Amino acid sequence: MDYISIFTTMGQEISLIIAFILVFIIDLFLPEDKKHHLGTISSILLAISIIINIMPCQGELFGGMYTTSPLANALKTILSAGTLIIFLQSTDWLSKGETAQRRGEFYVLTFSTLIGLFYMISAGNFLMLFIGMELATIPVACLVAFDKYKGHSAEAGAKFILSALFSSGLMLYGISMLYGSTGTLYFNDIPSLLVASPLEILSLVFFFSGLAFKLSLVPFHLWTADTYQGAPTSVTAYLSVISKGAAAFALMTILMKVFAPMVEQWSLMISIVIVVTITVANLFAILQSNLKRFMAFSSISQAGYIMLAVLAGSEQGATSLVYYILVYIAANLAVFGVINAVEQHAQGKVEREDYNGFYSTNPKLAMVMTLALFSLAGIPPFAGFFSKFFVFAAAFKSGFSVIVFIALVNTIISLYYYLLIVKAMFITPSDAPIATFKNSVPMRISLLTCVAGIILLGIVSSVYMWLDGMAL
After folding, report:
1. Hey, which of 26, 323, 340, 378 has its CA 20 to 30 A from 32?
2. Residue of 174, 133, 391, 424 lying closest to 278 (CA atoms)
3. Which residues, other chains included, contact 434 with Cβ-Cβ below 8 Å and sequence gap of 6+?
4. Which helix (H) or strand (E) holds 371?
């Protein structure tokens, strides 16, 4: 075996494994009074990984169990960049109280789950996919329960791991049915063996249900709001964008490559799920007063829009999916960055009414939140408008005009509930607004990066063209 080709093809995973080992060893031997440097070290290692792996690569290893493409490599780079932003936003939280003693664990667990997500993205075999999913899920459960002595973090962790176990069981059951029908687990070998028998249709349903839990699609979303509310805000941000992006790409790859002969069956199933997901999430988001629960239902709705790209089942759909994830990371992490900053400096205030008069005391943060919410709502000229346009165009081109129309109608509902927060910050008066505070340098860097993404990703068309030039 050519070891040079392994290092070039699996560069993303190998660099993350090296970073994981280095952070683990440094955390083990670093004196307690020097542990505050772990955040800087982890961020630098992740930044190095992004830089050395930014060039696209393509190939397969281990008999086809691992396969990658330029588009998959681009998505890994995007997810790494999103994780780097989360590292910057976690600095204040990890420097206070009991979590300061365990900050090394946070970075080690995050590196571990990111490695698992990368294996999911590059899986060419259902066994590799399942291993990657479990490698990503178990550390996330630890991260959700990281603030075990505060609020409902331990409860959120228990709910997450129980839901994850159930979804993994469903997926594994579906995979076993598919193996029983075709006799293989390799993605490239299965399509020629499929005949759309009842057993294969049932395996498709079970497999999709397992991944739908990861994506928080209705009706597999019931764990999401409680987990997002109870988990530390940085972990909630990671769940809402990084893990969701990897799961969506893995699902699209498998539907396009493995279940291509059964496109009629899965397109109908996904169409129903998209309509129900976007509608139910939008209606429930209106009722939420806690911003973390509000963002949970917002992320469920956004997952429905992401699934429009999956429904398209084309190269245009794959490009629009990766572009949507890129824009979604910038906007969603900006919102969670503001929520995190307020939570750290204002004694955990996360209710919508707490933000009444927020602009009068913290105008810059209010503007960041507003720009991010406008992007999530799809208001031009922000990047979110273009990301929605491309997923709508991909689905429309594939013949799903009715689904696109229903999704367009739902954007009006989403605009209403996003504007509720804007109204609270700029219009609704408050006798005791959140006091003026100054963010740390890492938080300011992360928010500036997100704002730059929100504004520039929609204007600089070369970003989408760059992704469009890559094969799935």
Report:
1. 340
2. 391
3. 342, 346, 349, 354, 355, 357, 358, 361, 362
4. helix 363-377
Condensed to tens digits (0 to 9), the pLDDT of residues 69-104 reads 888 888 898 999 999 999 998 888 888 777 777 888
- Tokens matching residue 421: 């927060």
210-237: per-residue pLDDT in tens? 888 888 888 888 888 888 888 888 888 8
- Contact criterion met (CB below 8 Å) for 324 and 390: yes
Q: How far is CA 370 from CA 82, 139, 318, 366, 394, in A?
A: 20, 32, 29, 6, 28
Rounded to 10°, the helix 244-257/126-144 angle is: 160
Structural domain boundaries of the chain?
3-468
Q: Cβ of 34: how many Cβ atoms within 10 Å?
A: 10
As a whole number of angstroms, the distance between CA 421 and CA 423 comes to: 5
User: Are 248 and 328 in contact, with CB atoms under 8 Å apart?
Assistant: no
CB 152 within 8 A of CB 230: yes
Q: Which two tokens stand for residue 230?
A: 């109870």
Predicted TM-score (pTM) of the model is 0.91
Which H or E run includes 68? strand 66-68
CB 251 within 8 A of CB 208: yes
CB pairs under 8 A, 24+ apart, for 154-161? 154/230, 155/226, 155/230, 156/226, 156/227, 156/228, 156/229, 156/230, 156/231, 157/230, 157/231, 159/223, 159/226, 159/227, 159/230, 160/223, 160/227, 160/231
